[in-house]
Amino acid sequence: MGRAFLIRWAAALALVLLTYNPAGFSYVDWVRGGFDQSPALKVLIGLLLFVAYVIYLRATVRSIGIVGIGLVLAIIAALIWVLIEAGIVSVENPSVMAWLGLITLSVVMGVGLSWSIIRRRLSGQLDVDDVEETSA
Hints:
The chain is mainly α and 136 residues long. It has one domain. The chain contains four helices and no strands. InterPro entries: DUF6524. Pfam families: DUF6524 (PF20134). Keywords: Membrane, Transmembrane, Transmembrane helix.
């Protein structure tokens, strides 16, 4: 389970960080540079990122639902709160808070994409999302 989750989470993290990150190397920063250079390529990549988000977010909502997303967000928020109280994370630095938000989004998507695997390991039960029905 660990490796499968890490691969899915890494893919979600890559999607999020390729879209935007405070370091300045992202799609958002590339587009902010102006549309005078390769506007067609920027639109194409933007559409590909949009499609990836639709796939990831739809899979997340279908697997853990809105309540599950809320629970994962609550757990991560509580963890961040603990880190802030322990003095490990500073809320004064907007860059750190942006990184935490981006990582949080990727973890939510990673959990959503991996939920069937996690649930199967915890419960021993298989999930079947879609059952094809044949019409006679």
